[in-house]
Amino acid sequence: MRQSMTLIPTLRELPSDAEIKSHQLLLRAGFIKQIASGVYSYMPLAKRALDHIEQIIREEMENAGAAELLLPALQPAELWQESGRWYTYGEELMRINDRHDRSFSLGPTHEEVITSIVSDSVPSYKRLPITLYQIQTKFRDEKRPRFGLLRGREFIMKDAYSFHTSEESLDEVYQKMHQAYTNIFTRCGLDFRAVLADSGSIGGKDTQEFMVLSEIGEDTIAYSDASSYAANIEMAEVHQVYERSDEPEKELSKVETPGKKTISEVSGFLNVQPSHVIKSLVLIVDEEPIMVLVRGDHEINDIKVKNALDASSVEFADEERTKELLNCSFGSIGPVNLPATLKIVADNAVEAMVNAVCGANEDDFHYINVIPGRDFHVDKYADLRFIQEGDPSPDGNGTIRFARGIEVGHIFKLGTTYSKAMSATFLDENGKAHPYIMGCYGIGVSRTLAAVAEQFNDENGLIWPTAIAPYDIHLIPVNMKDTEQKDLAEKLYTELKEHRYNVLFDDRNERPGVKFKDSDLIGMPVRVTVGKKAAEGIVEVKIRKSGEMQEVKAGDLLEVLTNIFKEL
């Protein structure tokens, strides 16, 4: 492609509203243009990179036995009402009405649509298992779009869905998809980890996220420093044995703690360690208030609370609701002398506490010498806290360390979550109806583009991995008005294309400095410069990643490039 015939609107100034490197560089290098908050146009360079990512996805999906289709972005409300998600998905679901006042949504995901289609089209076990996927634009009304393509309101996604007659069949395809995703992100050149995760609003169980390691990632990964264990911090289990102290039990007593509300304030005032204080909070679990207890040096993990209680929704009660229940403010609540109707669940660490401190359900007062089981009853003990750096790894190997990550893929075992809700069944060999057992597998395609940009850059611009680079080679004649440079560049352009290289030919009448700055900014793997030695048949070859440069005879260029691309 001749650069004069395409659109690459590079910017010299750093965009003021771009917070992270990938957002800044994709804007500056002319890959994307913002149309509205969280909504972007993909310019020609981005479209080519996205096409390459999508081609990798298609190849690996086909290898995994998945067939491509394309589902409508506009989905009737009836399907979402049938699954129940019309009422539970939340404000991110973009709802619209047509001229006849019929309700629709712009699809953030397609479980309902695909379940309906398969239910109508695959009535017998003889056609199962089957895996179907699409690559399509999705819509989510994000409250705060940010980080460019990493959290937008309109984005490109690959979503696949598998349908099975048995859990064993689902397990087999789940593993195939895990391998396919590993292949996809490896081929894209990314440094990533597959981590245990929560299924969130999609539903189901047994789920893994594919996380690209990045300091700006919105998710925290807990990983072992001695094994392959990795999990989203929300799902990392705490496998720690808490030894109960053998110190003599003391008598419960109430003490005044004027103005002391936080764990650090209370522990400092009473001269005890934070680990000696019981942290108490009220959570609303499926509309029922429940008190949750953890040790003062730990944090409550609401996802674990949800899973431990097999709940549909969990949220922290605000201070107004807490006062209604306990007649005291945050920082003074505790499990002693609670109303009989208020259940208590506690983290495993609480059970081992002796002579602890907790709120007295009276502002400016706390209890000391509190002992679980003696002074209050716990309805259930479970792992309810966030894992911490330095904790033992759940797999028994090494200790936990933290890293930040960008989620680019997610695979789920949905089970019968949607098929039961939507009465989607197949007939077995005896003619008996059963709900489909389902799997779901998503990749953020545009998010992957941003994740690559986040990992592959330097102070001069982007550095694209060869597999997804918009072009293999950036061919730059320094001066298009110089006949010898122009003629040699045109000759090389033709030869390179004939040898199936994708070439961006900078035929613009721009200053050399502008051309070179643009070239570094947009970051093609190899730059070939035709300059002052064109008359001698010599060109300069530069590898963008390493900065290595060499002069090459034009006649040897193809051989040199072959060797370079073998190494990239």
Structure description:
- The protein is of the alpha+beta class and 568 residues long.
- It folds into three domains: 40-237 and 401-453, Bira Bifunctional Protein, Domain 2 (BirA Bifunctional Protein, domain 2), CATH 3.30.930.10; 253-382, YbaK/aminoacyl-tRNA synthetase-associated domain (YbaK protein, Alpha-Beta Complex); 471-567, Rossmann fold (3-Layer(aba) Sandwich), CATH 3.40.50.800.
- It is built from 15 helices and 31 strands.
- Helix 13 links the parallel strand 27 and strand 28.
- It is globular and about 95 Å long.
Whole-number mean pLDDT: 95
Termini separation (Å)?
22 Å
The first-level CATH class name of the largest domain: Alpha Beta
Query: How many strand segments?
Result: 31
Q: Unreliable segments (pLDDT under 50, ≥5 consecutive)? A: none
Helix content: 25-40%
| Rg, Å, rounded | 29 Å
DSSP summary: helix tally: 15
The share of residues in extended strands comes to 25-35%
* CATH topology name of the largest domain: BirA Bifunctional Protein, domain 2
CATH superfamily of the largest domain: Bira Bifunctional Protein, Domain 2
The outline comes out as globular
**Domain tally:** 3
What is the CATH architecture term of the largest domain? 2-Layer Sandwich
Protein structure class: alpha+beta
Detail the topology: elements first, then pairings.
Blueprint: H1 21-28, E1 32-36, E2 39-42, H2 44-63, E3 67-68, E4 74-76, H3 77-83, H4 85-88, E5 94-97, E6 103-106, H5 111-121, E7 130-139, E8 154-164, H6 167-187, E9 192-196, E10 205-213, E11 219-224, E12 230-232, E13 253-256, H7 263-270, E14 278-285, E15 288-295, H8 302-308, E16 314-316, H9 319-326, E17 343-347, H10 348-351, E18 356-359, E19 365-370, E20 380-382, E21 400-415, H11 417-421, E22 425-427, E23 433-435, E24 437-444, H12 445-455, E25 457-458, E26 461-462, E27 473-477, H13 483-498, E28 503-505, H14 512-522, E29 526-530, E30 538-543, E31 549-553, H15 557-567
Parallel strand pairs: 3-7, 15-17, 17-20, 27-28, 27-29
Antiparallel strand pairs: 1-2, 4-6, 5-6, 7-8, 8-24, 9-10, 10-21, 11-12, 11-21, 13-19, 14-15, 14-16, 18-19, 21-24, 22-23, 25-26, 29-30, 30-31
